[in-house]
Amino acid sequence: VTVSRRPRVLRIRRQAKLLTAQAYEEVFERQFPTICDVTFAPLDAWCDAVLGPPEAPFDLDTAAVRFAGAVAGHDLFCPSYECIPLAPLLVALRNRAGAPVRLLLIAHAAAAYAFEWALLRPLVGAGDVIIAPTESARRAIEYLCPDLAPNIRTIPHPMAPLGRVARRTRLPRIVSLGRIHAQKLSHRLIESMTLVPRAVRLDIAGPLDDGGWDGPH
């Protein structure tokens, strides 16, 4: 008799400062535990425990042993967006240690990880999963690194239905969350409103300061 169980996921993260990251972590905490058992590990302390303090000499074999111990009992390890640059190194440690844990990488900004995709290409194997939140993100990853295609799954970010609220306007409403900066192309979003065939309301929310998130919102 085969007894199925919920996957055990190790989420490596720290408290998010970016508005969009905060929103995603709230969704993660609310939705993912409905389908899997999630353990949260503090990013800084976890990395120090596996890789050693930043000022300490780095030894690959020692780090591989530490990694295997740090993920023991889990089926998947899932780095947050801040930990994604370390994903190739962590997968290399996994392979060196022969640990059975698999990678679960959520590609929040798929086109921004070209270097990481190139490094991950020879390291990932069966069971490692890269989640693209949209078909556009999937195509971006496949364009940058076609060999990763078998590991990609397109799964939209899980969002619970919003509760009904009293509407102050009858206009359809669009809400955009993100850092308000030219690189985020908010101006293109505003320009696109002229193409909408009917009147709509556009709300843009996010930090107004450039490069940080302690300023006005």
Any chance you could write out the topology, listing elements then pairs?
Elements: E1 8-13, H1 19-31, E2 37-42, H2 43-51, H3 60-70, E3 76-79, H4 87-97, E4 102-106, H5 114-120, E5 129-132, H6 135-144, E6 152-154, E7 173-177, H7 186-192, E8 201-205
Parallel strand pairs: 1-2, 1-3, 3-4, 4-5, 5-6, 7-8
Helix pairs in contact: 2-3, 3-4
Task: Please describe the structure with a list of short key phrases separated by commas or semicolons.
two-stranded parallel sheet; 8 strands; single chain; elongated; 18% strand; 7 helices; alpha/beta
TL;DR?
The N and C termini lie far apart (56 Å). The chain is an alpha/beta fold.
User: Strand order within the widest sheet?
Assistant: 2-1-3-4-5-6
Shape, per Cα inertia axes: elongated
Structural class: alpha/beta
Number of helices, counting only DSSP H or I runs of 4 residues or more: 7
Kindly, what is the distance between the CA atoms of the first and last residues, rounded to a whole number of angstroms? 56 Å
For the secondary structure, the number of strands is: 8
- Mind summarizing the main beta sheet? 6 strands, parallel
Q: What are the segments in which pLDDT stays under 50 over at least 5 consecutive residues?
A: none
CA-based gyration radius: 20 Å
β-strand percent reads 15-25%
Helical residue percent? 25-40%
Note the run of SSEs as H and E.
Answer: EHEHHEHEHEHEEHE
Average pLDDT, rounded to a whole number, is: 86
